[in-house]
Amino acid sequence: MYKILIAVLLCLVLLCGCASTSQPEVADEELASISSKLDKICELLSENPGAVVDTDSDNVTIDDSDVNIDDVDQPVDTDTDSDSGSSSNSSDSSSTTKSPSANKMPTTTKEIVEYYSKSANQVKVDKPGFTCTDIPAVGEIKCDGLQSLVNSIKSAAMKTVKPTTIEAKKGQDHTKFSVVGETWGSKLDPNFVKKATCTKSGNFYNIHIELKDEKLSELPLNHDDCQTGKGISILTGKQMNEALSNIPILKVTRFASHFTGCYIDAKINISTGKMVETTNCMNVIADIEANSILSGQVPFSIKKVYKINY
Questions:
Q1: In the chain, where does DSSP find H-type helix?
Q2: Could you tell me if 222 and 183 are in contact, meaning their C-beta atoms sit under 8 angstroms apart?
Q3: How far apart are CA 253 and CA 245, in angstroms?
Q4: Predicted local confidence at residue 46, as pLDDT
């Protein structure tokens, strides 16, 4: 998903050579040319996620001689279903209650977060195997002076954005389990939780955790450089820098993230304390500046749905 977002930014930068805020309407032939380039860029990036895109000539080409970047996480929707049952809001996060045992239902925010984090971290240690489906979505992109063209570009780009599924076998590397790229599954701070609920269904606890909003002036370099990244996978500065290193023409000078409506769902076996399912949803509104001539606002999200093979 991130590579598609970058492709959209790239096309907007190219567009700035033939349009300005004083000339919001672009000729049909120019739009057709840009849309054609976008289709080619998205196709090439999809097939070669680590390759360098060359747009200097009329023909968009790609240099895949040094493909060394893994697929970055993908983006999603904000549907959150609240469970009935034991619940708590952030006001009880300072509770001194000890962490519940595997078969005692957690009730306070502190207990629920600790119970979830312990189970998530154990997945990284046990490496039981999992599948993960990334479900991406992009909202209405706002771009100064080029709104109608941006809408056309987004429409073309979204044709390439589809849910993707990855799999890790038992014992294999589990760094793509949430939190992606880290050796740990959760460092979530109970004080950063807006609401937490735990309900019992048969031999399972269903946990729902809503995170507080967080505004950042720039992308955090690593996940644990911000509160949201301590609980769910986000786009980090490190990932952005790696992706942009393969698109030399594009220079992102600002990427300020406003995380809002992020949440976690998890299903944990009561008898064993092992997590069998979890969904992490990152929703972000990004204020972006590129090449010192383009600025815009891009709302997007990634819903990561994990099935764990315990």
A1: 2-15, 28-47, 109-126, 147-157, 237-244
A2: no
A3: 14
A4: 54
The 3 state secondary structure assigned to 94-133 is CCCCCCCCCCCCCCCHHHHHHHHHHHHHHHHHHCCCEEEE
Are 159 and 48 in contact, with CB atoms under 8 Å apart? Answer: no
What is the per-residue pLDDT across 199-249, written as a single tens digit (0 to 9) for each?
999 999 999 999 999 999 988 989 999 999 999 999 888 888 877 777 777
Which run of H or E residues covers position 278?
strand 275-290
| Domain carrying residue 172 | 2-308
Report the distance separating Cα 136 and Cα 150, nearest Å.
19
Q: How many domains does the chain have?
A: 1
Q: Which residues contact 56 (CB under 8 A, 6 or more apart)?
A: 249
Instruction: Report residue 38: phi and psi, to 5°.
Output: -60, -45
Contact 280, 244 (CB under 8 A): no
One-letter amino acid identity for 217? S
Q: What pLDDT score was predicted for residue 244?
A: 77
**Residue whose entry in the numeric block shows the structure tokens 């598609």:** 4
The 3-state DSSP class for residue 273 equals coil
C-alpha to C-alpha distance for 268 and 273, rounded to whole angstroms: 6
Q: Which residues face 54 on adjacent strands?
A: 61
If DSSP codes are grouped into helix, strand and coil, which group holds residue 27? coil
- Using CA atoms, how far residue 262 sits from 174, 214, 220, 232, 250, in Å, is 23, 10, 16, 8, 29
Distance CA 179, CA 193 (A): 17
Task: Output the CA torsion sign for 149, 286, 82, 162.
Answer: positive
The parts of the chain modelled with pLDDT lower than 70 are 1-103, 144-146, 157, 160
Task: Report phi then psi at 40, rounded to 5.
Answer: -65, -45
Q: Which residue has the tokens 């939190």?
A: 179
Q: Please give the Cα distance from 269 to 197 (Å, whole number).
A: 16
